[in-house]
TrEMBL record:
Keywords: Methyltransferase, Transferase
Keyword Glycosyltransferase: no
GO molecular function, a single term: S-adenosylmethionine-dependent methyltransferase activity
Keyword Transferase: yes
Domain named Methyltransferase type: residues: 23-123
Organism lineage string: Bacteria, Bacillati, Actinomycetota, Actinomycetes, Kitasatosporales
Listed Gene3D superfamilies: Vaccinia Virus protein VP39
Protein name: Methyltransferase
Pfam families, sorted: Methyltransf_11 (PF08241)
GO BP annotation list: antibiotic biosynthetic process; methylation
């Protein structure tokens, strides 16, 4: 879903067929980075987790030479982009599922903004603090749902307390780094309440419903995650 949304914003912002310079901060196992490299873009990924690095390096090694040549992997912390790259070096900057794990997200966000070239696009995925009660509620965890109202943190799958973010606050932060919010989507609403099916017609139907909900009021406001895109003039 995030990939489709990102493609939509890229098509809306850049000339068709332009090869973009993309930075993926906290690339994980490289799903988005590889997808964009396959689409013809030059992609640099930053990751510090050893397991993630091992997985993405193996995935890149399995690609054809034309795609491998468009991928660069940097082992490092997303907060140190200024050490590795010059300001304004990238047309598109991704930071998906990272801000919730950072003690000073505003500093990281400012660093990401400095990487954007004029006309660039910044893509963020964060946990939706305005709907923290939805996930435990949909799973029948009523104590967890009640504890989530008004909260700004939650426990991830590993049991670590991490932060959630509010749409208005992230929008203000994007304006503060001269990359004001141009669009936003909800991610993962219905899939929190069901077992995700194997690939096939049932999965395609679920994804179609998720995609529609993610761009439709009022559903997108209660999604588990928010996908926010800021644009540099």
């Amino acid at each position: 879903m995030v990939g489709r949304q990102l493609d939509e914003r890229i098509v809306a912002r850049f000339p068709l067929g332009r090869r973009l310079k993309v930075l993926d901060v906290g690339m994980g196992r490289g799903a988005q980075a590889l997808r964009l490299a396959r689409a013809g873009h030059d992609v640099t990924g930053v990751e510090r987790d050893p397991d993630g690095l091992s997985a993405v390096r193996a995935a890149v090694a399995a690609e054809p030479e034309g795609i491998r040549s468009r991928m660069r992997i940097v082992e490092g912390d997303g907060r140190d982009t200024g050490v590795h790259f010059l300001p304004g070096s990238f047309d598109v900057v991704l930071c998906h599922g990272v801000l919730m794990h950072v003690e000073e997200p505003d500093a990281l966000l400012a660093g990401l903004g400095r990487m954007l070239a004029p006309g660039g696009l910044l893509s963020l995925v964060v946990r939706n603090a305005d709907a923290l009660a939805m996930r435990p509620g949909l799973r029948g965890d009523w104590a967890g749902a009640l504890a989530s109202f008004g909260a700004d943190t939650y426990r991830d799958a590993a049991g670590t307390e991490v932060r959630a973010h509010r749409l208005d606050a992230v929008g203000q932060a994007l304006a503060g780094i001269a990359a004001p919010l141009v669009s936003w989507y909800g991610v993962r609403l219905f899939s929190e309440a069901v077992d995700v099916p194997e690939p096939g017609p049932a999965l395609e139907a679920l994804l179609a419903a998720e995609e529609r909900a993610g761009r439709t009021e009022p559903y997108r406001r209660v999604a588990t995650l928010l996908h926010l895109c800021g644009g540099r003039d």
